[in-house]
Structure formats: C-alpha cells, structure tokens
C-alpha cells in the first residue's frame, strides 16, 4: 500500500467513494494509486502537463500493477480531457491563479458540467480559487487546513450549486451587518474554517498577525516616502486579521 504525505492524504480523503476522479497535475501518480489501492475509486484518469512527471507516474502505476485502472495522459490542465471520463476533479500542488485559469478554460468549454465535486488544494491565492468556484456554480461544503513539512496547506471540497442547501446548513451565512467584511474574510481564509474555529487556521492567523505587526513597526519607524507608502496596505491587512481572529474569540455561533 502506497504511503502518502500528510497533505496528499488530506486530498485523497476528500474524494467521495465510488467516484471516477480525474487528477490534474498528477505528478508521480501517488494520489491515483492510493485511491485505487484503498478502494475509494475503481478507475482514475491521471494527467500532467509535463512528460517527465507523467513518465514517472506511469512507472509507479506499473510498479503497483494498476495500469488497467489508472489511465495517464499528457494534458495542459483539462485541455485533453474527453467528456464523461470522470465526475470528480482533483487539482493539487499548484498556485491559485493557475487553478483558476484551468477552471475558467474548462468552464467556457462546458467541461466542468461533468464534475459533481472538486477537490482543490492551492499553494497560494486561495481567495482566487474560492471566488472561481462560486462563479462556476460550486459551493464549498468542506475544507481542511493542515501543516506538512513546516508549511500550511488548505484542501477544499466543493459540490455543484444544486447541493448548496446541504452546504449552507454546514456553513451558514454571516450576519447581514458584517456581510461584506465577512465575505472578503471568507474568501481570503476560508469561511468553512472560520465558522468552525479551526485550530490550525487560528494558529496561521496568529502567526500572520504577529509577522505583519513586526513589519508595520519597522516600516513606521523609517522616515522615507517609499516605506510610508506601504503603511495603508499593511494597516488594512492588520485590520482584516484582527477582525477574523475576533470571530474566533467571540464564542458565538455565526
């Protein structure tokens, strides 16, 4: 049985048993191998934009005797995906801007209609990914934040909008008096995590706040126009971080 890293294990755990996943950016093919070995999926489509990683994925798939269940394909995002090949989409290990671009390209070509669920793990710009999901008619019904190798990662599970009633029950809307601020915070840091007062997110936010406060104090003491120009953006970020942390500490259920 293949052993996954903590991050990849979190990604695999989000796949609904019985689905037919397509793993975009499969790298060495570890997640597809695990999904088949564990019985979560019977078949997986493993795709990567680079022949090198895809070749290593093929070698690993053959090593575990799973060539009949895991199909590999060279593909830039979902450009070489064929309709109805999968109903679960995995994209992990990329920046949020690239994930958004993949979703946008697939959405304009009608391909996203195939996927009942998406499991996305952006390395950066998570707010961009969350807004893209909303734009394309998906709602976040689960989210995990974890540390692996000293870095923070989030894994997002989203479902089609017709299942949004269940998602709203799990992740209720913010109060109307704070709706605009809450929406921005939810996009930036993950509303699902905030409302459940996730301890890993709380740790991350606290570290970010301390880092920004130290930076603010350094810049504020520099008497140069360039340094002063950074202060408004830092003040806004500090305000946002303090506001999110207050939602953790208030103790009331949103």
TrEMBL record:
Protein name, UniProt field: SAM-dependent methyltransferase
UniProt cross-references to InterPro entries, sorted A to Z: SAM-dependent_MTases_sf, TrmK
PANTHER family (UniProt xref): TRNA (ADENINE(22)-N(1))-METHYLTRANSFERASE (PTHR38451)
Phylogenetic classification of the source organism: Bacteria, Bacillati, Bacillota, Clostridia, Lachnospirales
Gene Ontology biological process terms in this record: methylation
Record's keyword annotation contains Signal: no
GO molecular function: tRNA (adenine(22)-N1)-methyltransferase activity
Keywords: Methyltransferase, Transferase
